[in-house]
Amino acid sequence: MTVNIKKIALCLCLLATLAVSACNTTEGFGRDMQAAGDTIKDAARDNKNY
Q1: DSSP alpha helix (H) spans, the chain
Q2: CA–CA separation, 4 vs 18, rounded Å?
Q3: How far apart are CA 1 and CA 15, in angstroms?
Q4: Which residues contact 29 (CB under 8 A, 6 or more apart)?
Q5: Radius of gyration of the chain (CA)
Q6: pLDDT-based confidence at 50, cuts 50/70/90?
Q7: Integer Cα distance of 46 and 19 in angstroms
Q8: Is there a contact between 36 and 19 (Cβ–Cβ < 8 Å)?
Q9: Nearest-angstrom CA–CA distance, 19 and 15
Q10: Whether the Cβ atoms of residue 35 and residue 16 lie closer than 8 Å to each other
Q11: 29-41: per-residue pLDDT in tens?
Q12: Do 13 and 40 form a contact (C-beta atoms < 8 A)?
């Protein structure tokens, strides 16, 4: 099963936009960015081809 990277990137961008618009403080922004980074890292790990 192949996953379209463009679709994943679009979803991550949309989620990041929602996360940024939802946080009200710098601390909240940091937590949101950490969660987004963890999600990207997990997706990359899950889609390794070797």
Answers
A1: 5-22, 26-46
A2: 22
A3: 23
A4: 20, 23
A5: 13
A6: low
A7: 23
A8: yes
A9: 6
A10: no
A11: 788 899 999 999 9
A12: no
Q: Which residue is associated with the tokens 């679709």?
A: 7
How much is the pLDDT for 23? 59
Region label for 5, one of left (φ > 0), alpha (ψ between -120 and 50) or beta (otherwise): alpha
- Integer Cα distance of 6 and 10 in angstroms: 6
Smallest CA-to-CA distance from 19 within 10, 31, 7, 8 is with: 31
Q: Residue 5: name the closest of 45, 44, 50 by CA.
A: 44
Of residues 45 and 24, more confidence is placed in: 45
Q: What is the pTM of this model?
A: 0.46
